[in-house]
Amino acid sequence: MFKGLSAFPLTPLSEAGIDFRAFTGLVERLVDSGVDSMGVLGSTGSYAYLQTHERKRVLREALAHAGGVPVIAGIGALRTRDVLELALDAEDAGVAGLLLAPVSYQPLKDHEVQALFETVCAAVRTPICVYDNPGTTHFRFTDALHGRIAALPNIASIKIPRLADDPVEAATRVAALRASVPSHVTLGVSGDASAVRGLLAGSDGWYSVTAGLFPEVALQIVRAVGNGDEEGAIALSVRLAPLWSLYDRFGGIRVMACATALLRLCGEDCLPLPLQGLRDGEREEVEAVLGGLGLL
Amino acid sequence: MFKGLSAFPLTPLSEAGIDFRAFTGLVERLVDSGVDSMGVLGSTGSYAYLQTHERKRVLREALAHAGGVPVIAGIGALRTRDVLELALDAEDAGVAGLLLAPVSYQPLKDHEVQALFETVCAAVRTPICVYDNPGTTHFRFTDALHGRIAALPNIASIKIPRLADDPVEAATRVAALRASVPSHVTLGVSGDASAVRGLLAGSDGWYSVTAGLFPEVALQIVRAVGNGDEEGAIALSVRLAPLWSLYDRFGGIRVMACATALLRLCGEDCLPLPLQGLRDGEREEVEAVLGGLGLL
């Protein structure tokens, strides 16, 4: 389940509410795309900004429109009680997997994060992916903690943060984590810019923001790696460097929101305030980059 | 309003709900204590972990039990729509001031934070304190941004993060910020360990976690500074070094939760999971430190 390419679509919304029509449109684009799974209500899916009842509805809309593509649902929240409610609801709704980040306001201690995962693992039967994203949660996992959590029942994968661009460093990181967790737990990379490095280093999958809107370009990279075409895979990723650069400058969610609007798949303002969409010159830059890559 | 000593009490709670009896007990302890204001639903008051309806009720309980002490309410939230709802509700309820932090999940851009404050400033008539707390929000204000926000209508104060222990560095920091904001905007220090440095450097107030439970020890420091007794003020703060050390190691909220329980003012588990209270040896350390300081 937590292998290959997992696509993370945006949840378009405005101050008036979630744009379910646009959201289900994005989900349907992924159905025959060839992605192995889709991750709804990930960071790019604005899970952290939605109320519990909104998240339950988004998930049901995704499941109703996902065709045969397995759906992974983000269940992270600041409080354990909310995580549990979302986990049980997602399981009832029929998700294939759960994605859980240790969201924080007060900095969390290792034993608190471990207890959070113990509580959720004991409450569900659905496989769980540990979402390691220090850029948003500000929690830093040690490999020892990853090892303890990965040994819990129902833990099936770890979504690891962006790897170094340097191939040796990336491979060393993947190998170190691999050595710390049980062999049945898959490792999937995030950070699209260096995903090819993770795949070449033997990670099992790619949790991809880009694939949420442009599954083909991500699939090309995954297939090249699968065919043993290391040079080709790297070249495909390098070709996308202008896109990776936009992510670095503006944040992936703002670029994807802009791109989705440029494709007329959602309205101009589709992020939860205080997050703002890109404007004027920034928007034109995104348009130029996507146009240059043949993505518009 | 945003001057002198402002005390920030805990909001004791459990998975079963908020312990309103314990909370109002903490509020009532502050009524005749001599503090200049109280800040409810601050970071130590767990605002980030509570639902909107819970926060509205906590605020009303505080106002009903605060006697003549002005109440400042934390109104931070991940979404602008929730901040606005909380701001208008707090104003309706009769608070003296609002405390607004740029809470983040996706890292925020300067113009997004500015727009958040513009929106709230335009919607209320109540004075607002800008809550600068990079340890929890992970947003770093520049002085230029502080200057632009401080010039907005209704902005009355900035709650600044912990200053350096070094007196020259602390004074330089306060002076630099002072030079960046209008003169009617007060500066109040956080980070109890170095609060005395901020007060001696001429900041207008102290937003204090310690004062939420032990107003006397904080007031002694404030009064010594007010009397021009620099050495005495520093000595009072140095005497509390074992307490500051506990904050550093365990986080202020966990220490205050433990101290509140040791004083039998709330139950043993009074933090929102995944945050856990201190246990066994850690709890005994807190007990020993507080006992040694005559605070139990």
TrEMBL record, chains A, B:
Taxonomy, superkingdom: Bacteria
Gene3D superfamilies, alphabetized: Aldolase class I (3.20.20.70)
Keywords: Lyase
The keyword NAD appears for this protein: no
Family per similarity comment: Belongs to the DapA family.
Listed name of the protein: Dihydrodipicolinate synthase family protein
Organism: Stenotrophomonas riyadhensis
